[in-house]
Amino acid sequence: MGLLTFSLNVTLDGCVDHQEGIADDETHAFFTRLMDEAGAMLWGRVTYEMMESYWPAVARGDVEAPPAVREWAVKLENKPKYVVSSTRTDFPWSHSHHIAGDLRSGLQKLKDATPAGVLLGSGKLATELDRLDLIDEYQFLVHPRIAGHGPTLYQSGLPHTRRLELVSAMPLRNGAVATHYRRARD
């Protein structure tokens, strides 16, 4: 069974607005490594639609991008992508699959079928999956910024505190810190 790893950019005050992070070669390399190691990507509909509106065009060469970014887009194009949505059923982006029905059983089946693990990149969906005790690890890129606005991590709350064990923390030259935590099991 593969692990479900939640990964996101986050500011020091918990903001997960993707425009608030530092976008440079180091942060790009961090997320490229995570994607390369994972067997599949998992998003909610909103994140999927944001990604779908940009990255396929980069992969095709329709949008000008540095070689490393285009390479990432091509890798993403070929990576299995799973989407949780109750409002949309058609996902035409290559290698995209819909997860419908019972969230717990659907995600457990995905984890069981993906030994290399699943990389989750949607904040709202992470809250729901954490409520179901399905997230195994957390890899956040903590940016040295205070955004002063939302959306924020776990904005709608969790029923109880999650205890985590530090696996690693690595500062980047840009001041961000790549953190890796594992869920502490009692």
From TrEMBL:
Domain Bacterial bifunctional deaminase-reductase C-terminal: 5-176
Leader sequence residues: none
GO biological process: riboflavin biosynthetic process
Taxonomic superkingdom: Bacteria
GO molecular function, one term: 5-amino-6-(5-phosphoribosylamino)uracil reductase activity
UniProt xrefs under PANTHER family: BIFUNCTIONAL DEAMINASE-REDUCTASE DOMAIN PROTEIN, DIHYDROFOLATE REDUCTASE FAMILY PROTEIN (AFU_ORTHOLOGUE AFUA_8G06820)
Protein name per the record: Deaminase
Species assigned in the record: Acidovorax cavernicola
